[in-house]
Every structure is written in C-alpha cells, then in structure tokens.
Amino acid sequence: MTKFELIYFNINGNAGGIRLLFDYLKVSFTDTLITDEEWPKIKDTTPFGQVPVLIIDNKIQLAQTTAIYRYIGAKYGAIAEILEDQALCDAFGEFICDVVSRGRAMVKSKGQQESNEQQYAKSMEYSRFANELFAPVFNKQFAKNGGHFVVGKKITWLDFLLANVTDRLLLLLNLEENEHFQQLKRHRDLIFGLPGLEKQVKEREKLGKNTIYRGESKNYEP
Length: 222
Fold this sequence. Notes:
It is a single chain. With 222 residues, the protein is of the alpha+beta class. Helix content is 55%, strand content 9%. Helix 1 packs across helix 6, helix 4 packs parallel to helix 6 and helix 6 crosses helix 7. It comes from Panagrolaimus superbus.
C-alpha cells in the first residue's frame, strides 16, 4: 500500500480540498501541519519552496496543488473517463489557480500589515476576478454540463479543488448571499456533504481560525 504524507500549513488553504479528497477515497495519509513560524526552516526542503507537498512512500516529493490533485484522482479513480474531459479538468484547474493567487495576495497583504491602500487594492482585485470572471465561468459550465459536477457525469478531483476554493471565496469576500454564487455554493455543499467527510469538514472549522503570512515577506512565494 502506498504511503502518503501531506505537508502544508495549519490552515485549510490549498490543502483543504486534498484532505477531503483523500477522505472521500478512503485513502490513509499523514497530515503534517506546519505553523507560520516553522515554515522558514522547512521551505528549503521542498522542491519549489512552496507547499503543499505530497511525499509518496518516503521517496518522491510531489509539489504543486493541481499536480497533487490529478495524481490522487488518477491513482484512485477520481478522474474523468475520457482524455478530452481530463484535459478540460486540467484547464479549469489552472483557471481556479488564477483566483487562488489573488486571494493569497489579499491575505498576505493583510497578514504582513501592508498599507491600507495596498490591502484595499488587492482585496478589490480578488473581488473583481471572483465576480466578473470566476463565477460567470463556472455558472456557464454547470449549465452546459447539466449535472452536479464540473466536468462529465461523475465526481472528479476537480470538484474537490473547486469546492475548497469556493468555500474560501464565500468566506473571505462574504458572498454567501450573492446571487451569482448560489450554484457554486450548492456545489460546495454537495461535495462537503459526501459520506465520510464529516470529520474533515469539522476540522476545517478549527483550521479556519489559524493565520499565516505574518513573518518576513522573503519567506513566502510572491
């Protein structure tokens, strides 16, 4: 049996959906949570100076969020059935990373106490991208796909990535009642309500209280 260790900050962040995916697939893994203070000592041990990192059988270090999702999905059947749909999942996954980068910039700006002007500008960019691009793209795709899932008629790794990011968007931008995010909210609730995820969903509430990006800016990716 393959042994997995997932290394990430003690927050939900980019690893939140990976944890849910592991639990949904009933795959055992070691969830190594690091603190903001511990990160500078760990950074140079990672492939690209970033987390999450998935260590496979104590040998392979797999970095980059979507690569980890795709690997787990492919290994355990949470992947689209045809190559074209797999490629669509990859494309939507890369698009999701665009909104994640803007959210990270906003949180980092606040955590490192940048000027009010800088914090406001990054918050507005995050909100603009979420409302003008992110929500319309996925509302259109859900309507086109005609089902509960983003691509195809079965659950894939992409659904966990999207649900995790949607949950962060709804919280950080206070979008729970926004009419343009109701389909995304329903999708998030569907994924979070899957059997076997109860413990991990509760754990999200605890991790949601933690913060990062409070140290030296050079310790973090742009």
